[in-house]
Design a protein that fits this description.
The chain is an alpha/beta fold. It is 32% helix and 23% strand. The chain folds into 3 domains: 254 residues, Purple Acid Phosphatase, chain A, domain 2, CATH 3.60.21; 83 residues, no CATH class; 72 residues, no CATH class. Strand 1, helix 1 and strand 2 form a beta-alpha-beta unit. The structure holds manganese (II) ion.
Length: 424
């Protein structure tokens, strides 16, 4: 019997806070240790190893040091790009790790004369498992890309087969990801033994006619947005251990406990800002926060005063002084009657961003179709993602702004316009 570990959405470097960064690092180290103890034959990462395509070198260095332990134990690491590993400029950190022999990128694509996308299998030398994969692509292009896939060729291949991918599947889309672009199940090649999914930040197992086992491990640690809230609520994080010979024999979720969390939600509907502030402070004082990651969600429409009358920085300092490892306030659902104009729909920054773009895309007057309507929203979201990249240690200001500008032009597909502009 053989086995492999299926890991996804690690998002290394997602947090700037050093305590959380350290916990994130430990979660990966713990996972690697577990894989070595369990004597897995290989590891498969379904994308989003890092949070950005060009992460800080310190994050890269720590990661390589940890992944090297697998290499020393002769456990190969196979992976595909996630949506966060993808870069419009071409070279992602994943390519560098592949070149350096730390990981093997299993997406080996080729376009044939008819424009079909041909994927080649990577065979694991020890177990003879055959891996093929589809990396994530730019927002908005996912389905088109799958439409060109030569499925018949993949389906014909004999042996134990794994298909790695980084996309949501339309038929299994969780309600909280309503706005997410997905790919219909029929776009995937049939009859693989295991479909190793990534991108959905929730642990899920599915079955469908012709697709015996579709698995999403969810984030290994906690990625971003609502992840940390869910983890603090007690949602389990970890990876899948898959045992197989010529068929999958056992699939088991292995929990990796990243931290002790504490989640509370308070509703201040109808209160004024002063009484909400007092009540919140009292409630927080009752909590046992020592050694915990504390996530507090406040919501409701205040009858009077401003939401900024509540000094969250002060409350955070107080919790930290009582030993909280990290404090996160989610106050996107706290609004005030007096400040209606500033209200934006949504509980999560990502949802709010999407809604804002959707509301305003109609006012954008351009001729390019990729900047209008739904495509425009997708381009705007992608631009936001690209422009959020931070300046790297050692990168000059000029190089940094050049890199951001270059990625932005590529994202909006305005290369031609910029080239023409500079010639004038
Ligand atoms: Mn992800």
């Amino acid at each position: 019997m053989f086995s492999f570990a299926h890991i996804s959405d690690i998002h290394l470097g997602a947090f700037r806070d050093l305590v959380i960064r350290d916990l994130e690092k430990q979660a990966l180290a713990e996972t690697v240790k577990k894989c070595i103890e369990l004597k897995v034959d290989f590891v498969l990462i379904s994308g989003d190893l890092f949070h950005v395509s060009i992460p800080d070198l310190s994050v890269v260095n720590d990661t390589i040091r940890t992944l090297r332990l697998l290499q020393d134990a002769k456990i190969p690491i196979y992976m595909i790009y996630g949506s966060h590993d993808y870069t419009p400029n071409g070279v992602s950190i994943i390519d560098i790790l592949d070149t350096a022999g730390i990981i093997v990128n299993v997406m080996k694509p080729r376009i044939d004369e008819e424009g079909m996308l041909i994927l080649q299998f990577v065979e694991d030398p020890k177990t003879k498992a055959k891996l093929a994969g589809m990396s994530a692509r730019r927002i908005g292009l996912e389905s088109k890309y799958y439409e060109k896939l030569d499925k018949a060729r993949l389906e014909k291949e004999k042996g134990f087969k794994i298909f790695a991918f980084h996309s949501g599947i339309t038929e299994f889309k969780p309600p909280f990801l309503n706005d997410m672009e997905t790919v219909p199940i029929s776009s995937f090649p049939k009859d693989f033994d295991y479909y190793a999914g990534g991108h959905i930040h929730e642990k899920r197992e599915h079955q469908w006619n012709g697709y015996p086992r579709i698995v999403f491990p969810g984030p290994l640690f906690t990625g971003y947005g609502k992840d940390i809230e869910e983890t603090a609520r007690g949602v389990k994080r970890g990876f899948y251990l898959v045992e197989f010979d010529d068929k999958v024999r056992k699939v088991e979720f292995i929990e990796i406990k990243g931290f002790d969390g504490l989640f509370r939600e308070y509703d201040f509907m109808g209160k004024n800002s002063q009484s909400a502030r007092k009540e919140l402070s009292l409630r927080l004082n009752e909590l046992e926060v020592n050694g915990k990651v504390v996530v507090i969600r406040v919501k409701g429409e205040l009858e009077g005063g401003k939401t900024t009358d509540i000094d969250f920085a002060e409350l955070r300092r107080n919790l930290a002084s009582r030993g909280a490892l990290y404090v996160h306030f989610n106050r996107f659902s706290l609004t005030s009657k007096e400040y209606e104009a500033n209200r934006i729909a949504g509980e999560d920054p990502a949802v709010i961003e999407g809604n804002l773009f959707r509301e305003n895309v109609g006012t954008v007057k351009v001729s390019q179709s990729n900047l209008k309507g739904d495509n425009g929203v997708a381009s705007a979201l992608e631009l936001l993602r690209v422009s959020r990249q931070q300046q790297k240690t050692g990168e000059s200001k000029g190089d940094y702004s050049g890199r951001i500008l270059d990625s932005s032009i590529k994202t909006l597909r305005l290369q031609k316009e910029f080239d023409e502009g500079s010639e004038e």
